[in-house]
Amino acid sequence: MAKIKDPTPLTLDHKFFAEAKRYLVGGVNSPVRSFKDVGGAPVFIKSARGSKLYSEDGREFIDYCMAFGPLILGHGHPEVAGAIKEALNNGTVFGAPTKSETMLAAAISNAIPSIERLRFTTSGTEAVMTAIRLARAYTGKEKLIRFTGSYHGHADYLLDCHGVPEGFKKHTLTAPYNDLEKTSALAERYKGNAAAVIVEPVAGNMGLVLPGRNFLKGLREICDRYKIILIFDEVITGFRLCYGGAQNLFNAVPDMTCLGKIIGGGLPAGAVGGHREIMKLLAPEEEVYQAGTFSGNPLTINAGLETLKILLKDDPYGRLEDLTTRLCEGIAEQVKIRGIKLKVNFIASMFSISCGAKLFRKLYHALLEEGVYLSPSNLETNFISTAHDDKDIDKTLKAFNKVLIPNVETS
Ligand code: PLP
User: Fold this and answer.
1) Count of CB atoms within 10 A of residue 316's CB?
2) Is the CB of 360 inside a 6 Å radius of any atom of ligand 1?
3) Which of 1-15, 293-307, 315-329 has the lowest mean pLDDT?
4) The pTM is what?
5) Which residue's CA is the nearest one to ligand 1's atom 2?
6) Strands 143-147 and 194-199: what pairing?
7) How many Å apart are CA 228 and CA 195, to the nearest integer?
8) 145 C-beta neighbours (distance < 10 Å), count
9) Cβ(382) – ligand 1 distance below 6 Å
10) Catalytic residue at 394?
11) 269: CA distance to ligand 1 center in Å?
12) Cα(287)–Cα(284) distance, rounded to whole angstroms?
């Protein structure tokens, strides 16, 4: 394929990026931020407020990446910021229990009844690692079934990359997402040694892919049949689709749930929870070890508590869905009129744009020029927050309208 010319002129961002690369690997602290998938230099952000990002060189963007999911109330929500400031006045970390941890655990458990006991971690990755360790301990089995295209954090046995020993990889089996037949065949083949099935109930790391009508309930049946622990990775979907998990919406109940993102109100967070018989295997009750210096730190917990309080009180999910639907149907309409090969998938306040890599790169940079900041990969999901409004949607649709022709070739 012909080399695509970097569509952005040399900017301050290129200068910042070159400097960053002298000290940080790839200039970033998480790979997708480097704009590898869309080319050019990433935008260096100075600040953010509500639905907007502000770059170091003074540009304003309507943000649909929203830090990849945690910010359902937008950037710097005043009440969440207030809760963080209040917590800060009392100290940042104690290495001892707090009453607010119990309150957040209770709020989560009330919203997601399959979570009878819970442990907070500092990231979604840690939550998933702990869920799998528990599933293995509970079942006494080793194999793990996951789905192609899903992402569950960067634990060894959930990645297939250099540096992961074959001995780890061999315990991880992969089935196609939404394919019950192949999942069932794997469970049958490894009968007696499959500990867990882990699934994103709405897949958010291969673009947005919705579960087929019977997929989640079908997984429940397979897991029951073969005595496998069903883990829902709700790091993205928890409190995103509704007040609770995707499990509330789809009426499919896992044995264990992993959470992250929204429950930390914009600060580093994770949690693993589930049936008390499984969870009680964790130290200190029993012998499955897991710990964390910053787990349940008071800043995160108070930001999470305030976020859940607002979500419960305001119930913004209908409005979020309306905004997302208007945006996505508007884009789909423009794309259809022009015969462009681009698909928009959406649910609740999540959406993704899938099209060829070349088209995505061009579209991406053309939209940046118009002040619209999407997640910088067409494998990532975009998010709408309560801070977004009709004006943002109008402006974004206008930007799409402008850039789809003539700036973006359709092939
Ligand atoms: N699970 C899912 C579905 C995710 O999307 C992510 C991160 O995006 C993770 C787990 C890992 O979470 P964290 O980045 O907090 O480690």
Assistant:
1) 17
2) no
3) 1-15
4) 0.96
5) 152
6) parallel
7) 5
8) 26
9) no
10) no
11) 10
12) 7
Ligand 1 in reach of 236 Cβ (< 6 A): yes
pLDDT at 63: 99
In degrees, rounded to 5, the angle at the alpha carbon of residue 170 between the alpha carbons of residues 165 and 174 is 120
The residues, any chain, with a CB within 8 Å of residue 372's CB and separated by 6 or more, are 61, 62, 64, 395, 396, 399, 400
Write out the CATH class of domain 78-314. Answer: alpha beta
- Decide if pLDDT at 330 tops 50: yes
| 336 Cα–ligand 1 center, Å | 33
Instruction: Give the pLDDT confidence of 161-192 residue by residue, as tens digits.
Output: 999 998 888 999 999 999 999 999 999 999 99
Token readout for 298 is: 């008071």
Q: Is 151 a catalytic residue?
A: yes
Q: Give which of 84, 72, 82, 4 is closest to 40, Cα–Cα.
A: 4
Per DSSP, helices labelled H in 199-353 are: 215-226, 246-250, 276-279, 298-314, 317-338
Instruction: With cut-offs at 50, 70 and 90, classify the pLDDT of residue 160.
Output: confident
Domain regions of the chain by residue span: 11-72+316-403, 78-314
DSSP characters for 128-178? Answer: HHHHHHHHHHHH---EEEEETT----S-GGG--STTS-HHHHTTEEEE-TT
Model confidence pLDDT, tens digit, residues 369-406:
999 999 999 999 999 999 999 999 999 999 999 998 75
- pLDDT of residue 65 exceeding 70: yes
- State whether the beta carbon of 207 lies less than 6 angstroms from ligand 1: no
Q: Is pLDDT at 3 greater than 50 in this prediction?
A: no
**Domain 11-72+316-403: CATH superfamily, name plus number:** Aspartate Aminotransferase, domain 1 (3.90.1150.10)
Q: Is the CB of 127 under 6 A from ligand 1?
A: no
Q: Which one from 151, 190, 317, 373 is the annotated catalytic residue?
A: 151
204-210 average pLDDT score: 97
Residue 341 annotated to the active site: no
The pLDDT, as a whole number, for residue 320 is: 98
The Cα–Cα gap between 155 and 127 comes to 10
Residue 234 Cβ inside 6 Å of ligand 1? The answer reads no
The predicted pLDDT at position 4 comes to 39
Mutate to test the pocket of ligand 1, among 33, 200, 235 (most ligand atoms within 8 A of CB): 235
Mutate to test the pocket of ligand 1, among 147, 152, 199 (most ligand atoms within 8 A of CB): 152
